Amino acid sequence: MSSTRWGRSSLAGELLLAAETYVWGLQGICQLQRIPFSPNLVLQQFPPPYDLFSLQRAAAALGLRCGLRDAIVAELTGLSAPFVAVLRSADPPKVSPEVNTALEPNTSPPCNLAIVIQCQGGRITYFEQGRQHPLTTTLEKFEARFTGKAAHA
Questions:
Q1: Is-contact 149 116, C-beta < 8 A?
Q2: N or C: which end of the chain has fewer CB within 10 A?
Q3: Do 124 and 134 contact (CB within 8 A), yes or no?
Q4: What is the pTM of this model?
C-alpha cells in the first residue's frame, strides 16, 4: 500500500517491537509533546505482543493523535517532525549452534524505532534507543534500515 494519508498501514501488525522499544518510543514522543508518561501504567494497560497498531492505540490513550503510514524515504521530508520511523534491527538475530534459525518460522526480528526531529535537504536527524544525542545522516544511508513505515503523533 502506497498511501499518502494517515491511517492503518498495511503489514503494520507484522512489525513487532520489543517491550523496551515500545516504551522508549512512547516515552520519547510524550516527552517531546510535554505529556506525562508512566511506563508501568502503559505496560499494564497494553499487554504484548507489541506492534505498530498497539503503539498507535497506546499513543491515542495518552492523548496523542497517532496515524500510521507507508512511506518511501523520499517522502519523509514532507512529514511534520517529530514523527516515528520504524527501522530494521541493526543487529542480526543471534543463531544458536544447535539450531539453524534464531527465530520461529515466519517471524522477523523485532524492529527498532527512530524519533525523527528534523528531515530536510537530503538529511535526517533522529534519536535512536540507547543513544543520548541525536544522529544525523543522509536519507540514502537512512534508507538502508528504514522499513517504509512511519507514525505521526
A1: no
A2: N
A3: no
A4: 0.80
